[in-house]
């Protein structure tokens, strides 16, 4: 098993056993879950200071998930070095300074490498069977509500647009003039909510997930940490790596994961979905939506 997969397994176990830890050990665990790349380059005292606990609390946390001590616990995280820790304004100023110094070639390389690393980190931590199970729930559902706000509203809308070329039960929320909780008012155990939010977590998404769970909906969550409130509440949770040298988080892993999830839904669907997609595009050609190819 590769090092990234090992560290993902450690994080998953830490997340699942979070409620069983003492309050102080929970503080240490939450710090690790939200800052996994710090672990590989930090001493036990540095992690303890950052989490505002005692070093022996970090050691007890490590033993809770099956390690002899902190050094063994840290080993799977050695390769993971956290990127982009500066505040958003500081990172924006750093980009401007780089441009003045003629450093755009370096920025280009950093952006490309971070994009590739994010894709690799995201998909290496996802179990294909879990993605398949989520896709089956989507296909079997009455309605699928895809929730994102801010930049993730566009990501949710794009996923819904693609899905609706062959299926009719998909809805991007919040709808114009509405709220996510209002849009879910009549949803129940026959329906699915796909929720997306990353740090700092948007309260309207977190609240909508809580309401969805109370109403018996299946929740599929996409976020950036195993400690994310929507991941911990989800029936199917998928953690994404979204760090970049830029001052904003990357949407590339979110889009890639949503596209992959949709491909799994289509694979689980009946043949009539393929017929619907063909008819959808046939009608567009007939109505002149597309420019004729001169060739």
Automatic annotation (TrEMBL):
It comes from the Bacteria. Residues 134-279 form the SIS domain. Keywords: DNA-binding, Transcription, Transcription regulation. Residues 8-84 form the HTH rpiR-type domain. Gene3D superfamilies: Glucose-6-phosphate isomerase like protein, domain 1, Winged helix-like DNA-binding domain superfamily/Winged helix DNA-binding domain. PANTHER family: GLUCOKINASE, RPIR-FAMILY TRANSCRIPTIONAL REGULATOR. This is MurR/RpiR family transcriptional regulator. It comes from Aliisedimentitalea scapharcae.
